[in-house]
Amino acid sequence: MRLDDEDVLRLLDPSALAPYPISLPMDLRSITISRQKLSKRYGGSAMDTFPTPSAHKLSQHGRANFMCINLSLWNPNGPQVPGHGGLFFEAGLTEESWMRDEGGRLLVYTVFARLRSNEWLYLGQYELHAAPSLSAQQWCALSPYVRACWTKNICKKKWGTRVRARIHLRTTLGREPSREEVDSAQGSYAHVTPEQINDAFVAGDESIQTWSMKCVGYDEDFQREIVELARGG
To answer: Fewer Cβ neighbours under 10 Å: the N or C end of the chain?
Structure first.
């Protein structure tokens, strides 16, 4: 289950509503590729949301900022059609600095979305803009499958440490911890359970940060290359 249209419109930046015009024929823009082929050609992990190509791969193709979003597990309201906007969810990178280069300019990501197993679709070139966090009601509106994916991974992944630390500190301090207290917290807080994490989201003590994804370009030559790669076996 995804957020309803009304919730999406509240969260999505108005500038992301208008789709980017694409002239590539539909039969070509709809061709998908596997993560394995994508990784072999362009580098980076076949599992990461933000795969990082090696310096050698980067020298071959010049594309540094890949972004691969899973629509069924993590981002049910992400873009699903090339050129269209959508929402990206995250719980561990709430500072805007990760989406900007050293000069403070917004990074432009080459975005792929998982439609089905081994089928990843190139959507275009996207900028991300900070949007409101999900409310407790919006969190509860997500499918149990999506919520479980988030809580289980926040429970065990390094990027979930700050969430776990805040939950632990609320329990031990009996109040909301300050940012300084969270920053200085030591340990992994692996004892915090998925159930406690879900309870924190339901209570509104924690929330999923959303980012508005706006398509600012579509590289038709790149998609033609993807088509050749996908059909190449």
So the answer is: C
Which residues have C-beta within 8 Å of that of residue 37, sequence separation ≥ 6? 229, 230
- Residue from 13, 214, 18 nearest 132 by CA: 13
Helix, coil or strand: residue 212: strand
8, two tokens: 């999406």
Helical pair 144-156 and 194-203, crossing angle rounded to 10 deg: 120
Distance CA 171, CA 127 (A): 38
For 15-68, the pLDDT digits (tens) are: 999 999 999 999 999 999 999 999 999 998 989 999 988 888 888 888 889 999
The model carries a pTM of: 0.90
CA–CA separation, 108 vs 64, rounded Å?
A: 10
C-alpha of 137 from chain center: 21
Contacts of 8-14 with CB under 8 Å at 24 or more apart are 8/77, 8/87, 10/132, 11/87, 11/131, 11/132, 11/134, 11/210, 11/212, 12/85, 12/86, 12/87, 12/131, 12/212, 13/85, 13/129, 13/131, 13/212, 13/214
All residues at 6 or more sequence positions from 99 whose CB lies less than 8 Å from its CB, including other chains: 106, 107, 127, 128, 211
Q: For 19-60, give the DSSP string.
A: PPP--S-HHHHT-EE-HHHHHHHH-S-SS-SS----HHHHHH
Dmax (CA) for the chain in angstroms is: 59
